[in-house]
Amino acid sequence: MKDLYIISEKAALLEEEAFLIRQDGGEIPEVAMHGAIYFLTEDDDGPGLELRKRDLDLLKQAVVERYRVIIRRDLDPANRDARHFRGMARCVANWQRLSGFCCREGLDPTGLKTEIGAALRGFLEGEDRDVRQQRRASCLNCTAEELAWLADALGLREKSLPPGWRKLCRKAEVSGER
User: Alpha-carbon distance 178 to 171, whole Å?
Assistant: First the structure.
C-alpha cells in the first residue's frame, strides 16, 4: 500500500510540474522544465525523486505544449492589439527554439508544423486583407527573409501564402545605417 501511495504522489508531483510548465513556463519553457527537474530531484526542499524516461517525457511534452500556446498566441489575429502580443519576430524565434528543443530531445514536430503552418497562413491572409482594405497598418515586425524562413521551416510553399505578404514585413536594416 505504501508503494502505491509513493507512486501516486510521484505522479501528482510530476503532473503539477508539467501543469506549471504549460501554464506558467514563460517564453522559454525548457528553462522551466530544467527548474522542475532540479526541484523534483536535487533541491533540498524538493521530494528527491528519481525520474524515469516516461517522467521526463511528460515534462518534455509540457514544454512542447507551452511553445505551441505561445506561438499560437502570436498567430491569433485577435491578439494583434493586446499587450501580450509579441508579433511575428517572436513567433519566428519561438519556432527556432521549439525546433531546436525537439531536435535535441528526439521529438517529432510534424503535427505542430501542420497546425502552426495553417495558423501562419491564416494570419497572413487576414493581415494582407486588412492592410489592403486600409483597416490597419501591418503589425509584422520581422523581415521578409525571416518570415520566408519560418514558412519554409513549416513546410509552406511561397505560392501558398498571400501574394502581398512580403510588403507586410518590415524592411531589413542596411549595414551601417540606423
Answer: 12
> What is the block-wise mean pLDDT of the chain (178 residues), using blocks of 10 residues?
61 96 91 97 96 97 96 92 87 96 95 95 94 90 95 94 91 55
- Total H helices, total E strands in the chain: 7, 0
The three cell numbers of residue 125 are 491572409
What's the rounded Cα separation, in Å, for the pair 69 and 61? 12
- Give me the pLDDT at residue 175, please: 52
CB neighbour list of residue 137: distance below 8 Å, 6 or more residues apart: 131
Please tell me the distance from the alpha carbon of residue 66 to that of residue 46, in angstroms, as a whole number: 23
Helix (H, G, I), strand (E, B) or coil at 113: helix
pTM value is 0.87
Angle between helices 110-132 and 144-153 (to 10 degrees): 140
Q: Provide CB contacts within 8 A for 26, sequence distance 6+.
A: 32
Among 136, 158, 134, CA closest to 145? 158
- 82 CB-contact burial (10 Å; exposed 0-12 / middle 13-18 / buried 19+): exposed
Among candidate residues 61, 79, 175, the one with its CA nearest the CA of residue 127: 79
How many residues are recorded in the chain?
178
